Amino acid sequence: MAAYIIRRVFGALVLLLVVSAVTFAIFFVVPRLGGQTATQLATQYVGKDANPESVAAIKKNLGFDHPIYIQYWDYIKGLFVGADYKFGPDASHCGAPCFGYSFKSHIEVWPELQQRIPISFSLAVGAAVIWLIFGVTTGVISALRKGQPVDRIAMFIALAGVSLPIFFTGQIVNALFVYQWPIWDSTDYVPFTENPADWAWHLLLPWISLAFLFSALYARLTRAGMLETMSEDYIRTARAKGLKETTVVTKHGLRAALTPIVTIFGMDFGILIGSAVLTETVFSLQGIGAYSIQAIRDNDLPIVMGVTLVAAFFIVLCNLLVDLVYAAIDPRVRFS
Among 108, 145, 286, 332, which residue has the fewest nearby CB atoms (within 10 Å)? Predict the structure, then answer.
């Protein structure tokens, strides 16, 4: 098992390095292949009041006057040891991990990300708990009651949940429970360390709105997996041995049916931490998703690259954990 974990961790690190290289190439290599010069690239990040001095400063800070491989090496080195930037007569040190400075606000990207990661993580965790509980439970009940009214109603709700986008359900929830019936005075984020009860209460509406979409998908996946699993020979053998139906369903049926659910959950959860853009926008949550949208509007390169790498880290981490969980939930999977 130790060798398996080492291989998976090494593979995850290599994948993150590839993501960083591809992201770097998109912003630094592709424009040059399109014919843009170093000065033209730097001018895009100065703003409306561009002058030769500011363009030269940006070109030096971003390393546009260096070969591509040196630019990439400096970027990777900054993630581990930090980097120095000079804005006019002032020089600043960006501590590790250095994702660079925002060239619009001259603020380090990493401290801003640190403030926003808990918001996105809180949103993802709460929604994930809700959609797993309701989605998997609904899927199991529908599979065991196939063709009955409970199954039809549950699948109708699931179809509606998959069909309705978050910007629609989120606005409806806001209109009803914040404005029409002011049960929630606001959905502003309250840090968990300050007041756990307020943290959960203020995030409940975003959790429910986001979980409604995913619960429907997971209910359909669980139902399909359970219908296939419950018809296997080993399920009939377990019943023939006289095991309780609850044991047959949970220990033998659901355990095997959860393998694809765990796979997609790892991907969904990792992606959600860095890209819950619509939910954060609808409920005015200043998480990573909202931060990335603002950076794209401002053409703020360091923020976009920082968000991309952080989001990639969570996706790779979640998929690494999924691989390690496989053997615990499915006896057919072994570390080899």
Answer: 332
